[in-house]
Structures are given as C-alpha cells and as structure tokens.
Amino acid sequence: MNRSELEKIKKEALENKIPIIMDDTLDEIAKILKEVKPAKILEIGTAVGYSAICFSEYLQEDGSIDTIERDEERVIKAKENIRKAEVEDKINIYFGDAVEILPTLNCKYDIVFIDAAKGKYPIFLKEGLRMLNDNGIIIADNVLYKGYVLSDYNKHKQRTAVRNLREFLKELEENPELETTILEVGDGLAVARKRLSK
Ligand code: SAH
Ligand code: MG
Questions:
Q1: Residue 142, by phi and psi: left (phi above 0), alpha (psi -120 to 50) or beta?
Q2: Most exposed: 29, 78, 107, 109, by fewest CB within 10 Å?
Q3: Quick one: the chain helix, strand, coil %, rounded to 5?
Q4: Residue 75: which H helix or E strand, with range?
Q5: How far is the CA of 197 from the centre of ligand 2 (A)?
Q6: What is the pTM of this model?
Q7: Mutate to test the pocket of ligand 1, among 56, 70, 141 (most ligand atoms within 8 A of CB)
C-alpha cells in the first residue's frame, strides 16, 4: 500500500465532506482486524474507498474485500483512489444499492462492515448474518447517530433512521448467536461476534 497516497486520499475526502471513518473508530477496527487476520471482508458503503484501503492492510496474504456503493461518482473516485493506493488486487467494488446487491452474493465473510444508509441497517444485518463465517464479526458504524439513538429524540426527517438503528441494536442484542459490544468511539460502533459454542 502506498501510504503517502493514503494521506492525500484522506485529506481530499475530508475537504469534500465525505463521511469517512473517524480515526478513533478506525483504531478500534484495526485492533479487531489484527487479531482476526480476515481472508474476506464485506463492506457496505464504500464512499471513496478510504476505509476499504485502510482495512486492506490487515488482510491475510491472498485475502480480499468486497465493497458496495450506490453513488456512481463515488464509485469512480473510489476506483481511482484504490489504484493510487496500489491495492486494486485486493478490493472489488459493486456499484449499486446494497439492498439489491446483497441478496445476489453468496460468499462467506470473516468481517462484515456496515457503514451506509442507517434506515437500512436491519436489512444489512439480515444479509450480513447470512454470509458471516462461524467465527465472523459484524461491525457497524454510526449506530449511536449523534446520540439520537439512545436519547428520547423522536423528530423530523431522521426519525426513520433512528427507529431503524434502535431496531438494529435490539436485534443484535437479542440474537443468541451474537455477543455484542457498543463502543462509544466516533459516531458509535457496534461489534457483534458470533459465539463459538451453540
Ligand atoms: N466506509 C466509508 C464511508 C461510507 S459513507 C469510509 O469510511 O471511507 C456511506 C456511503 O454509503 C455513502 O457513500 C453512500 O452513498 C453509501 N450508501 C448509502 N446507502 C447505500 C445503499 N443502500 N447501498 C449502497 N451504498 C449506500
Ligand atoms: Mg461511518
């Protein structure tokens, strides 16, 4: 990976107000990835490729990342960034709505990273769980959504997103196959590990 390019990609993304992963959130995920050494990662929400490029460093030797993005301009930028970072052999982008693409995938993943439309998290969870390896981990960003999710916030246009994030967290917590932790880094990070026994 080309680190000086990665710094430029990050700077440009921030200047363009692309909601890339926050540094403290990335640090937490990096710890998990170092421990897991994943062969396959699924990412929902590529944006301009920043997080996928960062994650690619922690893959097993011949591992790879599949990542989904519905905004065409961002897909074009992500491809350019991935090439500049010299990790194009490790990252495969699907262009389209993840709600439509996910049901067509049939791989097994060690890590599923959810970082897209908050209102769709319950759907992403269902599809992610279907493709999660036995010792896999679901990681989801922005689950506390500026504090709205755990407060009595109940207004305006974010209402559906907040309701669906609450539903998502409830499903994680009530799923007997998962051991879930919510970390208060960045905008809230959920880490749900499949329990080994059962
Ligand atoms: N993971 C990226 C940031 C992703 S921002 C990083 O940290 O670098 C969220 C992205 O998800 C946006 O680019 C948005 O266009 C995309 N997105 C939102 N809903 C989506 C959906 N249903 N299907 C595919 N992409 C989606
Ligand atoms: Mg995010």
A1: left
A2: 107
A3: 45, 20, 35
A4: helix 72-84
A5: 31
A6: 0.96
A7: 70
Residue range 3-194 forms a domain whose CATH class is alpha beta
189-194 and 178-183: which strand pairing?
Answer: antiparallel
How high is the pLDDT of residue 197?
62
Q: Which residue has the tokens 């981990």?
A: 137
Our mutation pick for probing the ligand 1 site, out of 24, 27, 55, 69, counting the most ligand atoms within 8 A of Cβ, is 69
Tokens representing 191 are 């880490």
Q: How long, in residues, is the chain?
A: 198
Instruction: Spell out the domain ranges in the chain.
Output: 3-194
Does 98 contact ligand 1 (Cβ within 6 A)? yes
Q: Give distance in angstroms: CA of 42 to centre of ligand 1.
A: 13
Residues 6+ apart with CB under 8 A from 130: none
How many other C-beta atoms are found inside a 10 Å radius of the C-beta of residue 54? 21
Over the chain (198 residues), the average pLDDT of each successive run of 10 is 96 98 97 98 98 98 97 98 98 98 97 96 97 96 87 74 93 95 95 82
